Each structure stands twice: as structure tokens, then as C-alpha cells.
Amino acid sequence: MNKKFTIRTLAAQISYTVVFKKTNLSEAFSQKFSTINQAEIKASVKALCYETIRNYLFLQDIWLKCVEKRPKDKMVGVIMTQALAELKYLHKPEHVVVNEAINTAKKLNKKWASGLINSSLRKAIKMDTKPSCEEALYSHPQWWIDQLKQDWPDQWQQILKANNQKPPLWIRSRQPLAKDQYQQRHTEIESAYHINAQDILSNTEFDKGLLSVQDASAQLAAIIIDPQNDERILDACAAPGGKTCHLLEMNSHIHLDALEIYPNRAKKIHQNLTRLKLKAQVIVADALQLQDWYSGEKYQKILLDVPCSASGILRRHPDIKFIRQPQQLKQICKDQQQLLENVATTLSKNGRLLYATCSVFKQENSDQIKLFLKTHPEFSEIELKYPFAVNCEHGIQILSGTQNMDGFYYCYLQKNAD
Fold it and tell me: What are the tens digits of pLDDT across the range 283-321?
């Protein structure tokens, strides 16, 4: 089978399952790649899928202007959207894009659509690409745009544009960083290691545990916590273990419990610890079921990086725009409240808890802390100040794209003594 043909066919099938079946990209890749061994094919399929899904609503808007009626067969639309992604973002020749789109349709038993694809793409290539609506302009669902307008009336466009950019590769070095070094150091890291992820994973220094892949905004968690000798620290919702390992790199003389509900994700924590030659107690349990994992001995510090909408990391996971639905946010927030309530009970007097999300939606962030502080007067907020972060009513927000970082929220709380 022709390699290019295989790549386009696989990519179309994967993009279809993400956009219309709401399957996440990782799962879709896993399903389709189970019988493929060639790394080059996998990399090409991923590149095409990411560009197609990241820009789907914008590209779809272009070809929709070139058809009298939207085709009932959604795969045909995916094929045309993917073809435009190849043309505009992967810079393939026009004749190749059109011909291979037709071939892909035939391979996927859509031969009847060959004429439609041919005429529509040729028109789309020549026409004005001015978007017809906000969804197309920003390539985000309208509800997402509206939410950001509400939460960030001065920065919503910046966030949307950043979400559609290719993400940089950030590297965490083994050298501990002081708080006042953080801003300067993360700029140096990006400059030095903005290279291909596969190159890093095959890098000798990576194998030796001298380097780890972690966005700069996520690296801030361990720096805020600033682990000290002999402290008992809990990393709740710990997988895949990047922050767990960073805490231990900063100070190996701590007692660290890494809590994770899913066994398969807990394995990733073990893998990272092994590669970096670090030690922590990995506990597979539900953070909400204290009786299953909590010994009764209080923690001096807790990192609670709660499951969230992931609205701050869309540039790394563009499939989230299609998977996440607005009605899900209510349940996500409820789960976050329960996690915060339960985990906070394991904190010692004068202990500190860092609440974190990779979201930019205020209802998951400062609104959650506002509610928690209202009902827990024994807690107070420790002020955080970083020049690259926005000060919220409670906590700080790193907006997506700021200094080329992912979107991340932090609020540091202290449990006061009686």
C-alpha cells in the first residue's frame, strides 16, 4: 500500500472519530496504530491529524462556501477539511492535495463523492478565505468563545489565538531552581531545547534522567511548594508524575505520597520515578475514599492538581475542543469541590495546600477557591506574585500563550492553627 495513501486514509478515519464520535486523540491513535510499526507513518499521521483538528472549524467553513448543500456523509467533509489542512499548514502542492483527497475518498468507499470533492476543493483553493462567523474565525465552538469572553473580556482573543498555535517543547533540567530564577530560567530552557519531542525521548541525557519534558507553567507547582527536609507531602491526582518527580528533584529528603486513581496511569508515575532514580510511595486509590489510602498522619504540604476541562492546554490537545461539552463543566466543578474538601482534611495545622488546574475557566479556578474559603474559615490564602501571571480574586492565572506557556491556575492555601 502506498505510504502517502495510507497516511491520509488513517488520518481521515482518526479525525472523523474525534470530531464526530468524540473520541480522544490518544485513544484514536492507539486503535489505528495497533498494527502499524513504522514510526515515520505514525508521525506523519499525527501531524496531519493535529493540523486538521486544530483548524477544523476554520477549514470547514471554507469548503462549505463551495457546495450547494452540506454532504450527509460526514467523512466526505472530513476528507475535504483534511485536504485544506495539507494545503494551508503542511504546504503540499495543490494538484497533489486534490488528487489525494479523491484517492482517499475512493479508498474509504466514497467514490461517489469524487466529483464533489474535486470541484469543491478547486473552488476553495481559489476563493477568499474570510471566515463567515466567530466559530470559523477562531476555530473554536461558540460556547467556548462565549465563556472566554465572559471570563477574560480583555484577553479572550489572545487565548483563542494561542490555542491554535503549535505548542513548544519545554524541558525541565535536573538543576533545582530558586523562585527568583524561575522566569529567567524557563526562557533559557525554551531557547536551548525547542526541538523535536522524539529527539528528546531518544536523547542520552533524557535516558539518564537529566532531562524531563514539562511545560514551564506546570514546572511552577514544585517551585511554589518549595519542599523542605523531612516534610510529608501529598501529590494528589499525581499521574503521569511530572510534578511528583520535580518535587523530589528539588529536595529528595521528603516523604512523598503520589496518589492516583487509575492503575494504568500509576504505572507512568513508576516509570518516571525509575528513569529519574527517585523514590516516592505510589498509592493507587480514589482520593475521595480516604479510608482506602489515608493513614491518619497529616501532611505538611499538598499538591492538588485536580482533573479539569483542560481548557489551558488546547494547543497540545486540540481534540478537547470537540470532546468537551458545556454541560460537562458543572460535573467537573462538582468533582473538584469534593476533591478539595476531602484532601484538605489530611492537611496539618499550619500546613499548605496548592490547588492547581490546567484550565483558564474561572468557575474551575478562582470561583472554586472563593466557595471553599467561604465555607472553611480555618483556611487563608498565601499571596502569589509572578510577573507572567494574572492576579485573580483568588490565586493566579497563567493565560494560554503567555511567554509561550500553557494555561495554568494556582492558588496556595494555608490551614491556620487554632
Answer: 999 999 999 999 999 999 999 999 999 999 999 999 999
pTM: 0.91
Domain with residue 110: its CATH number is: 1.10.940.10
User: For residue 171, what pLDDT is reported?
Assistant: 87
Residues 6+ apart with CB under 8 A from 356: 221, 303, 304, 305, 306, 408, 409, 410, 411
Range of the domain at 226: 171-415
Catalytic residue among 49, 237, 333, 358: 358
* Single-letter amino acid, residue 159: I
Mean pLDDT of all residues in 246-256? 97
Q: How far is CA 91 from the centre of its chain?
A: 26
**358 among known catalytic residues:** yes
β-strand 299-305 against 281-284: which pairing, if any? Answer: unpaired
Q: What was the pLDDT predicted at 1?
A: 45
- Main-chain dihedrals φ then ψ at residue 397, nearest 5 degrees: -125, 125
Dihedral in degrees, nearest 10, Cα atoms 188, 189, 194, 197: 180
